[in-house]
Amino acid sequence: MESDMGKLLDILGNETRRRILLMLTRRPYFVSELSQELGIGQKAVLEHLRILKSAGLIEERVEKIPRGRPRKYYTIKRGFRLEVLLTPYTFGTEIYEPTKPGTREVYSMTKALIKAHKPVEEKIEELVDFLGEIEVRLNELLEARRELEEVRLLVETYIENLLRRVAQEDEKLVEEIIHEVEPKLPKRILERINDF
Description:
62% helix; alpha+beta; 196 residues; single chain
């Protein structure tokens, strides 16, 4: 997984690929459009698209147009969130992918609002209000997550520092402690502990 993460970081480290991904968040594009907006040749765009596609970040679909050859459009394939953790004692990455939608009450509320047979003005107003409620809930959850992540980092760092101090004084004792708490420790801490 760590090597996959390294490859992903390398792929996203390229400015042109990041620009392509940003453009694809707005709408699907075909190669000549991307080439024109980026100001680079189609051959280079195709190579960047190949790399992004092989990483599973984008996908392509072919659409027939009334006149001319069918066009191949590129779109974002899936959403994910990549986090990089860097402290004086550790460096790591984590990727979060969304689970399958449709299992929570909020999805059924959303579907009901979308499928409601109401005048368009009323429907838009209800959807905008609902969107505002979602934004408020998301901000609350994000703030709670930030606080929990800060506390997690603090506790993880403290555990590692304690184990380092114990290791300097008594290696056998630290091995016993690690053996005892190993089933409960997150994998990322165990990997860092194994380094000292």
